[in-house]
Amino acid sequence: MKNIIVSLLCFLFIAMGNAYAGRASFPLDSTFDYNAPSTVSVDYKEPLPVLIPFGEILVQNVFVWAWDRYHLGVNYAKISPEVWKRNIKNGWTWDNNHFGINFFGHPYQGVFYHAAARASGYSFYQSVLFDMFGSFSWEFFCENEYPSLNDFIMTSYGGAFYGEILYRLSERLLVKPKPNWIDHAGAFILNPYTYLHRRITGTRPNHPHYFPIELSVFTGAGFRFGSDYRYDKSPADRLDDKWEELFGFAGLNLVYGSPNRVLKKPFEYFTIQATQEMGQRERLFNLEVLAKLKNINKVSGKDWFDFATYTSYDVFYGDLVEMSAFSLGLGSDFNVWLRPSLSFRLTSIPSFVILGSTDFNYDDLLKEFYPDYEPTRTYQLNYGVHYKAAFDISAKYGRISNHTNIFLLKTMPSSAPHYGATGWDIVGFNISNIDFFLAKHINLGLNLKFYFKIAAYEGEYFEPMSRTMESFGLYVKYLF
After folding, report:
1. What is the pLDDT of residue 27?
2. Across 152-168, average pLDDT
3. What is the DSSP string of 289-326?
4. How many helices (H) and strands (E) does the chain have?
5. Is residue 410 very low, low, confident or very high in pLDDT (cuts 50, 70, 90)?
6. 184 by DSSP, 3-state: which?
7. CATH number listed for the domain at residues 212-479
8. Where are the alpha helices (DSSP H) in 408-474?
9. CA of 359: how far to CAs of 37, 107, 377, 387, in Å?
């Protein structure tokens, strides 16, 4: 799963970079006129009949179920009318699937539901209903496991979230008058369903058209160290592990749309920050995605202020940390020019965590007291609050930026596995960067990161614990 994610991100920046290099028919993204008529033609003015995307979603589910049942031979695909009746009678529960399946696999399944609706000409919010239908029908009628509420949330909400982003990026690669084979390959990789759908049924209403993109990729190396500490009753038995290692990293930053304009539709502005770290012993993937749904924007000269409804997905996935959070909130974003070559930007976004997860760090204790104990999953399911803040100071020869995320998470009621641990997690990470502009497209940078977690669970065996991880690195960044 981790390798697939990294491969898709690599192809993304190759394809998007190629789209940048060959878009001579469009103005520079920094001077793009949003009021100019769209150059993308719509083949049909009406969406396809509603039964068509509903039918496509059912066909998707039947195909995946048949593959699982008859090709892979998995047990959960052995369904019957008795299973359907039991699922309807029992209702929702929480499952214990692998972190990667629940927080990457299920959202990606929802991407195809979303694609069926969007490619048929339906709006973002209309398409969310199709996402929910696809997830509901799968949970109740395509598996013999009890319907999972966390799967339903991740497939519906995550499918709409990722589905809209991948749909827009895929279509963005094809807006040139003569897209080349790399553009077509990139559009297909990002969203194969909408790519094929468009060629069969034509372009429909609610098409995203052209939006400017800023893309940069970076690679570097550094040093990181961390510690785990548990406040056990007996000082002699306290966990106090420390570690350090060299690591390499690579990633991308992508900005879709402009922050200083009024949005007409959801996701006309979003950002993606992704980093893959490979250490001497451990690896870690970090993804932060932030999108606007609705906003109020005021502009005065080069200065602007924006107040918006945001949705975001933040995740750490790897050997060192597993945590994720889908959030929805309100926030402000403003930019002022202090001097002709000096600007300051500040973003502040408090939000509610619809569904989150944090890694569980007490398996060794439970194994000590219960020799027959076997972990059912490596993480807790949570809800809570999230605060995201960032500032950026840009000058002629460089930039200083910092962004912070702090999560206060509570175990989701009735979601704890058989060990029964419920409680609170405080998770935070801070990333600081200093960029030096060496050339028009090349930056040299210094990166500082800090991650922490504090956990307090109810129960005799669950003493409070803390974890920290710090790193610093040097990198080279290329701006397309």
Report:
1. 36
2. 96
3. EEEEEEEEEEEETTEEEEEEEEEEEEEEEESS-EEEEE
4. 11, 12
5. very high
6. helix
7. 2.40.128
8. none
9. 49, 20, 9, 20
Q: Nearest to residue 255, comparing CAs of 340, 347, 338, 179? A: 347
CA dist 116 and 284 (Å) reads 33
Closest CA to 34 of 255, 203, 266, 263: 263
d(CA 413, CA 361): 19
Q: Say whether pLDDT at 108 is over 60.
A: yes
Amino acid occupying residue 466:
S
Distance CA 234, CA 60 (A): 55
Element (H, E) at 14: helix 2-21
Local structure of residue 32 (DSSP, 8 states): -
pTM to 2 decimals? 0.89
- The pLDDT assigned to 21 comes to 43
Query: What is the tens place of the pLDDT at every residue in 4-49?
Result: 555 555 555 555 555 444 443 333 344 455 555 455 666 677 899 9
pLDDT at 216 exceeding the cut of 90? yes
Side-chain half-sphere exposure of 348, counting CA atoms within 13 A: 5
User: Rounded CA gap, 130 and 114, in Å?
Assistant: 7
The pLDDT confidence band at residue 206, using thresholds 50, 70 and 90, is confident
User: Quick check: helix, strand or coil at residue 121?
Assistant: coil
Please name which of 184, 160, 158, 180 lies closest in space to residue 170, comparing C-alpha atoms: 184
The confidence band for 445, taking pLDDT boundaries of 50, 70 and 90, is: very high
DSSP string, 149-176: HHHHHIIIIIHHHHHHHHHHHHHHTT-S
Q: Which residue has the higher pLDDT, 34 or 363?
A: 363
- CA atoms of 353 and 73, how far apart (whole Å): 36
For the chain, report the end-to-end CA distance as a whole number of angstroms.
28
pLDDT at 281 over 90: no
Q: What is the DSSP string of 365-417?
A: HHHHH-TT---S-SEEEEEEEEEEEEEEEE-SSEEEEEEEEEEEEEEPTT---
Contact between residue 255 and residue 288 where contact means Cβ atoms under 8 Å apart: no
Residue 434's nearest CA partner among 404, 477, 405 is: 477
Where helices occur in 67-147 by DSSP H, the ranges are 81-90, 99-100, 106-119, 124-141
Percent helix / strand / coil, the chain, rounded to 5:
30, 40, 30
Q: Is the distance from CB of 399 to CB of 377 less than 8 angstroms?
A: no
- Domain coordinates of the chain in residue numbers? 3-201, 212-479
Closest alpha carbon to 171 in 159, 160, 186, 156:
186
By the 10 Å C-beta count (0-12 exposed, 13-18 middle, 19+ buried), 326 is classed as buried
* Contact between residue 145 and residue 95 where contact means Cβ atoms under 8 Å apart: yes
Map residue 89 onto helix, strand or coil: helix
**Residue 3, number of CB atoms within 10 A of its CB:** 8
The pairing of strands 465-479 and 213-230 is: antiparallel
Assigned token pair, 359: 């890694």
